[in-house]
Design goal:
The structure holds two protein chains of two kinds. By secondary structure, chain A is of the alpha/beta class. Chain A has 16 helices and 19 strands. Chain B has helices at 31-41, 104-111, 128-137, 145-149, 151-154, 165-175, 185-190, 202-206, 213-229, 232-239; strands at residues 3-10, 17-24, 61-64, 67-70, 85-88, 95-97, 100-101. The longest helix of chain B has 17 residues, at 213-229. Chains A and B meet through helix 3, helix 4, helix 10, helix 13 and helix 15 of A and helix 1, helix 2 and helix 3 of B.
């Protein structure tokens, strides 16, 4: 075997966003040796992009809120495909996790009584999102980072994992490379936590950063884990649409939470036209009531702009398709109008939404305190991911855990805004705790040198070819394909076509050429990210074909209605013996009576 | 279609030189878009660090026409495209390759600053007015442009004696956090070199988050250090206390 640096930890965490850092902090507090591998520098993970806040039923703004309401909201938002146990744990534990952040140095916005302030968000019955202006994700990651660096955790920055090492099925380590020098490294570990985030870079229009290349999803799949709910990709309703170079960058739901409204080119608030039956009782039927809700009137119901993301995104898509969109193919999101209602509106907007103000001013030459923004759907979040045990977050592969976006179960068919940051904290924490327990009760395994050598050989192959296609060209074609054929509105024949085309792209990806050497070579990195994105893109299309109904984020033009038969199972994908993707419909476990009763009461 | 020339630094560990690339310019483009286009078309192995492309992660710091900036937030329509646009790595940190520098020194500095310590006697209750000040400092995205431009580091290389503007902002945030009970004034004076700063405000000028680094963080910290260690009246008072 080649000479590789070997590093040993009890628990190895792959990913240093909110979930990875939560897991690392908890595991190290349990007294085990923890290493964190991050693809970027510490503190740069995609979590910094989260804007609106973290959902936790603390009841600081509206005392009627409690975990039961949060649980019911999460299940309704996920169209009841959620793992109900995860939804329960999440709702129960989120408030403690938020308070813990404060005890580690986070500084949240305050209520008049001096408590942590909470704001309205889509699908949440009461103001529930603890936040810091519109940069909550940054606050969270910085707090975890600044706390974590004093916990004796080893951070391996700018390292990417290529494969998980197994010994008799159990995970015993990982093999990867550092970006700076391109040297391979072996990480030995008794337990591994995947916290690699999502898959958004497989799509052309996305709010996701370069790291979001489905690494954790693909690593787990190759190691024999099951992947759940892969058909459910969340398209956030409001991404920037103009200028072209910023297309897809997120515009926080907080804009609507603060009173922002959606209008089409005729100035009409089209969201009032289509309110789903499941939400009829909770939604305002006139503009005045909607406004009062955003200003904290407890008797008012929420405006239809704050319906769930899947629904709002589709309504925007409809307006654009039917010719009522804005000049650049979006609709208008208007917060400036609140000057009719409150004094000093420009100052208020700048204080509540500082980074949105900054972002539009600097990137789009638009002053959001004076004029409306143009927005449209952008690929934002992956509900699907590694199937894990609700209590421990362990996958089917012994010793392999997953948390955060690369895990699955909590969100079902559609995630509510604000439930991601709290997910990272709650299940990162659980994964860290249980992985530490696992590491304490299991010894180190043996490294499979053949697997290491084979992975190294494949990784270096792009340098050894005598010319060939650029990995960027393959990536661009994949992004176009997923955007056009497996996007927000889906059809059977288009997804079938997508699977065929993905096979052709896989063949091309296996022959790409990279110039230069191994030192900080972005082209080489892309060449190694491609197989992950391709494998997972195929899963999205396969699951999408099998779910012949429209539910949550998965919308089928050929099956536009919800079908009760499909409410009884989740789709699971695993790797078959012949290397192909095997799909199974797995029945959803019966919900216990006490949880059923909560859902009934909250209807 | 309009094109522009980008003069990009290529090379490893301090070596190398500028290389010119031509690329197409479309409406709304930022420098990072141009670098990505060049990378995809002409220079697959071009090294550049970036993440969010929205000014929120602070990864793509570079010197554009000599000015420290985030590549993702620098619109091409703010630059003179009739001349080549130079793009080079930050100069204050060791060079790795092309546009990438080794910023690990910053991570080591942070570990040496006393961490947040909660005050056990205080309730977790505070007014918004009490947290406005530290919240300004917590907007920092750690792009290190302020470190890059600070002459104490850039010209004098006092990396061992001086923590730089980023970490004065970090310390100020801790010192002004109403829930914090630790005291970092002695370290600021003796270990972190706050006296070296002669408030030229270069850091404030380049901060993409528009944090008033000098006025709101460094000067108040200097005042606290002076009050604590150099005020003759309070020293007298302490002797007799």
């Amino acid at each position: 075997m080649g000479e590789y640096q070997v590093l040993e930890h009890d628990v190895l965490v792959i990913g240093a966003g909110g979930a990875g850092l939560s897991a690392a902090v908890r595991a190290s507090a349990s007294g085990v040796k923890v290493g964190v591998v991050s693809k970027s520098l510490l503190g740069k993970a995609h979590t910094v992009m989260a804007e609106g806040g973290m959902a936790a039923a603390m009841g600081n703004v509206d005392g009627r809120d409690n975990w039961k309401v949060h649980f019911a909201d999460t299940m309704r938002g996920g169209q009841y495909l959620n793992n109900w146990r995860m939804a329960q744990l999440h709702a129960q534990e989120a408030p403690d996790r938020v308070r813990e952040l404060e005890q580690w140095g986070a500084i949240f916005d305050r209520t008049k009584e001096g408590k942590i302030l909470q704001r309205n968000f889509g699908g949440h019955r009461y103001p529930r999102l603890a936040h810091v202006g519109d940069r909550t994700g940054l606050e969270m990651i910085r707090t975890l980072q600044d706390h974590g660096i004093h916990q004796g955790i080893d951070f391996h920055m700018e390292v990417t994992i290529l494969t998980l090492l197994q010994d008799a099925g159990r995970v015993v380590g990982a093999f990867g490379y550092d970006r700076e020098r391109g040297r391979f490294r072996i990480f030995k570990a008794k337990a591994i936590i995947l916290a690699t985030g999502g898959v958004g870079r497989a799509f052309k229009i996305t709010s996701n950063s370069w790291e979001y290349t489905a690494d954790g999803h693909a690593l787990a799949y190759q190691a024999g884990a099951e992947l759940l709910d892969m058909e459910f990709v969340q398209f956030h309703p409001t991404g920037m649409v103009w200028p072209p170079s910023v297309r897809g960058i997120l515009v926080t739901e907080g804009v609507r939470g603060e009173g922002g409204v959606l209008r089409n080119k005729d100035g009409k608030r089209f969201m009032f036209d289509d309110i789903p039956p499941l939400y009829k009782n909770q939604t305002a039927d006139n503009e005045e009531e909607g406004w009062r809700y955003t200003q904290g009137d407890k008797d008012a119901r929420r405006p239809p702009e704050l319906l769930t993301r899947d629904h709002v995104a589709r309504c925007i898509q409809r307006e654009v398709r039917e010719g009522r969109g804005s000049p650049h193919g979006g609709v208008y999101l208007d917060i400036a109008w609140i000057k009719e209602k409150i004094q000093n509106a420009p100052e208020h907007i700048k204080r509540k939404l500082p980074s949105m103000y900054h972002q539009f001013k600097q990137l789009g030459d638009i002053d959001i305190t004076k004029e409306p923004m143009e927005v449209g759907p952008t690929t934002h979040y992956m509900m699907g991911g590694v199937k894990v045990d609700a209590e421990t977050q362990m996958s089917k592969v012994p010793g392999l855990f997953a948390a955060g976006e690369c895990g699955a179960g909590l969100h079902g068919a559609n995630r509510l805004g604000g439930n991601s940051l709290s997910d990272l904290l709650v299940f990162g924490n659980r994964a860290g705790s249980h992985a530490a327990d696992w590491a304490k009760s299991h010894g180190a395994g043996a490294v499979n040198t053949d697997q290491v050598e084979e992975t190294a050989r494949r990784a270096l192959a792009p340098f050894e070819r005598n010319g060939g296609e650029s990995p960027y060209a393959v990536h661009h074609d994949l992004q176009d394909l997923m955007q056009n054929l497996v996007g927000i509105v889906r059809l059977e024949n288009e997804m079938t076509q997508a699977i065929e085309k993905i096979q052709a792209l896989k063949a091309r990806a296996a022959k790409v050429f990279v110039p230069g050497n191994r030192e900080y070579n972005n082209g080489w990195h892309m060449a190694m990210d491609l197989p992950n994105m391709l494998e997972v893109s195929e899963m999205i299309a396969r699951s999408g074909i099998d779910r012949k109904e429209s539910r949550g984020a998965h919308f089928r033009d050929d099956y536009p209605k919800k079908d009760d038969e499909y409410s009884k199972f989740n789709l699971v994908i695993r790797k078959a013996a012949d290397g192909s993707q095997q799909l199974e419909r797995v029945p959803i476990a019966e919900m216990p009576a006490d949880l059923k009763q909560i859902i009934e009461e909250m209807k | 279609m309009a094109t522009a020339t980008f003069r990009i630094w290529r090379g490893e560990r301090g070596g190398g030189g500028f290389q010119d690339y031509k690329t197409e310019v479309t409406e709304g483009m930022v420098v990072l878009d141009a670098v990505h286009q060049i990378q995809a078309a002409d220079a697959n192995d071009l090294s550049v660090r970036w993440n969010c492309k929205a000014g929120k992660c602070g990864s793509c710091s570079a010197e554009i026409n000599g000015h420290p900036k985030l590549m993702c937030m620098t619109r091409l329509n703010t630059l003179d495209l009739s001349e080549p646009v130079t793009v080079e790595p930050m100069k204050t940190f060791p060079h790795v390759r092309d546009l990438v520098t080794d910023v690990s020194w910053n991570y080591k500095v942070k570990e040496n600053i006393r961490k947040f310590k909660s005050d056990p006697k205080r309730a977790w209750n505070a007014q918004q007015a009490d947290v406005d000040r530290p919240q300004e400092f917590r907007k920092c995205i750690e792009c290190y442009l302020c470190q890059d431009v600070c002459h104490v580091l850039r010209e004098h290389g006092l990396h061992d004696e001086f923590i730089g503007p980023r970490f004065f902002v970090y310390t100020a945030q801790l010192e002004m956090n109403p829930f914090d009970a630790d005291d970092r004034l002695g370290d600021l004076k003796d270990k972190h070199g706050i006296g070296y700063c002669n408030i030229t405000k270069c850091c404030t000028a380049v901060c993409p988050e528009e944090i008033k680094i000098t006025d709101n963080a460094i000067i108040p910290l200097k005042e606290r250090v002076v009050d604590e260690f150099y005020d003759p009246l309070s020293r007298l008072f302490k002797i007799f206390r």
